[in-house]
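TEACHING EXERCISE
Course module: macromolecular assemblies
Task: Read the component lines below, then compare them to the predicted structure of the full complex.
Student: A.B.
Group: 4
Components provided:
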Amino acid sequence: MSEVLTFLETLKARSQQRAEEPTWIAARRQAGAARFEAMGFPTRRDEEWKYTDVRAISQTHFALTENAEFSQAGAAALTLPIDAYRLTFVDGVFSAALSDLDGLPQGLQILPLSQALTENHEAVGGPLGRLTGVEFSPFAALNTAFMEEGAVVRLAPGTVVEKPIVLQFLSRANAEPVMCHPRVLVEAAGRSEATLIEHYTGEADAQNFTNVVGEYMLDRGAIFNHYKLQEAPLGDYHVASMHVEQNRDSRYRSYNLNLGGALVRNDLISDLNGKGAEANFLGLFFGQGRQHVDNHTKVNHNAPLTFSNENYKGILGDRAHGVFNGKVFVKRDSQKIEGFQSNQNLLLSDRARIDAKPELEIYADDVKCSHGTTTGQLDEEAVYAMRTRGIDKATARALLTLAFAGEVLEEVTLDAISERVELAVAGKLPERFNLTGLVETASALNE
Amino acid sequence: MATEEMEQLVRREYKEGFVTDIESDTLPPGLDENTIAFISQKKGEPEWMLEWRLDAYRQWLKMKEPSWAHLNYPPIDYQSISYFSAPKRPEDRPQSLDEVDPKLLETYEKLGIPLHERAALAGVAVDAVFDSVSVATTFKETLSEAGVIFCSISEAVRDYPELIKEYLGTVVPKNDNYFAALNSAVFTDGSFVFVPKGVKCPMELSTYFRINAANTGQFERTLIVCESGAEVSYLEGCTAPMRDENQLHAAVVEIVALDDAYIKYSTVQNWYPGDEDGKGGIYNFVTKRGDCRGDRSRISWTQVETGSAITWKYPSCMLRGKDSIGEFYSVAVTNGRQQADTGTKMIHIGEGTRSYIVAKGISAGKSDQSYRGLVKIGPRAKGARNFTQCDSLLIGDTCGAHTFPYQEINNSTATVEHEATTSKIGEDQLFYCQSRGITEEDAVSMIVNGFCKDVFQELPMEFAVEAEALLNVTLEGAVG
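Instructor-supplied answer key:
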């Protein structure tokens, strides 16, 4: 309980510094704090947190920061080489210097949450927190209590945005660990189309805590590609609650790529609320050292004729611990739906560990649902076959690992991202060797 | 499929519903240490057994009823249950079938399983539990020649105290869970099977449990031990008469397999599921666990679950011995307002252990069914292997089918696979059958039986026939 008080004290100190806010924000903040105080941090006795111990977070004192200083060169090295509209946050604080919103097309609005609140806070009040309320989890409540900054993306009806939108979250190696509670709010109106990349990265020695809440509202026929490239420093704690709402005929694709972080927890939920809505969840998690990566996903088929497909791959080496919990929920009378789920895990070392729980909860009969999950190791016969052809053992293993990840990666249409993940996976394999050349040759051949 | 036929099917009556009127020597409702002392005394148990029960009771008092299952039922008042019921005149217990109360025999007749015929035809020894006391045990001599002990647990406590002391509560500890603790405190009957080293039990052992006298919960305790190289196949089948009050059933089954032993445990459960509105029906909270203690030992659970209002049951295997094998084959059918949360746990501890799970769930009417399973691979279980197949079939749009498989894998040399599907009977499958002159009802029956085939073929022959018939009866009207 004392851990909860530490966070509440930080909150109290912060609110005394804060300028006066619209009443609705103050009320939400209070509701968040009250809910967090009531629930406390989750423990492993909570079914949703059965395999994830968050004491590393709850027992650390995290400060808040107000400056967004980051060297241009340092940032440039971390930034994805993609021509994009870009918002950058440094330890949760908006950095205008590292952002680039030149030439925003008509019908697209991208702005930091603080600015959106100053300009027209009423317009934010409605959607903010509509999908992820304080009830969702203690972390969502904590985020609501602390929320100050984040990104608001609005797409007018029929707007098709060609360039991706990048939200870049940088974590600094501070003297003392800091925390941030960003919000991401996306409102995609009817038939609009966009690609959003949330990129979490930072300085190698950082040890901060990022607790993000994302809400993505897709109206009729909207098409939304959502990349999450989580390359947080290996000392960082990362908790993300992502909630998608899909209206009729909307299409959502999630690429949830997790490479970094000491302790990572992702909750990804999609509500398929209108006929013809389609959700695709693709995920890859790669753990090494003592990393803990927990992915919870849920697809709610709330309307008939909806479709979902999920494919998550886990690669775990050293003493890494992976968790996959995927749920397909089919509401009563949501007939003629299809829901597929697949989770495959590769254990590269004796001490690596995976806990998987693919769930189906179905209340309609005219459905096609399936899930499959497998866990195993590299096929030694395949390694042998490659060795007989002169490929050394380490390379063979790396190639097979890459091939395992390939099924997800080949769906990634942005080369800058897939190459980055490929290199990360190949470079971090237990038996180190240089695959860069190979990957580059392969991608050159593809072009 | 025609909705009317479906509804007819769903509206089937419980065929085995009848109450045999035998005066019972029943304890008034309520549970305290006196109740336990009474049961222990009634059973003529030694002092240590009473202590064991009381210890379990005291632990139970401190425990909380589990609420994690996907089940919904009103709170159970444990003080409103009578914890002991025995047929009158226990001292005049019949020594053979001829001496059995004709009303009891009649009951079996109604079930279509005349004891003597079955026993003679199938060469099966039957330890029939009528309410809480064993009333007939046959083929005891053949068994004793082979050195196999097959008796009621109460007799075993009196006659084989060393064996009971050695094994009872070693697989399912007294405080394992809420219902196991309750059972440990108040268990009244059940079977004890002991197969000594190297003996292959000459016949399949079978017990028919029946719950009779209204308001008595049934708390059986079964213990099966196979020494090195021994083998036994045990059959358990249940039906219960119709009544209004919910009945609590909390059994514990413990199985121990030593080196190279093989135990096959088959269950057909057809207790009263309650009426159309979910009134009445048995609450079935069972803890079944097998311990593959020896190397290369093998335990196989097969179950056909068609009855009970509430089923909470997870037959499990602790795979300790090197290269030991655990198997679980299950068909669960729910109709009306039945709720079932069932599955298995395979705990891989030893090297080279293997487990195989096939679970088939059929939901109809307004029922709700969940498969809940755990496959755990310990850090020392090198080369462990699991395959799980778990399919659900939904009949009608008011039922639910859920899957909650847990996998906890701590060893990179393990291979674990899980597959699950959920669907309804395909219109194209039905059309195909009908275009060949098969009636819709028959077609549905064929498809459902085909769906369950993988499990039925694991059942002993005579049980398989019964199970198929039972499946048809259960889904009668709803399916052909």
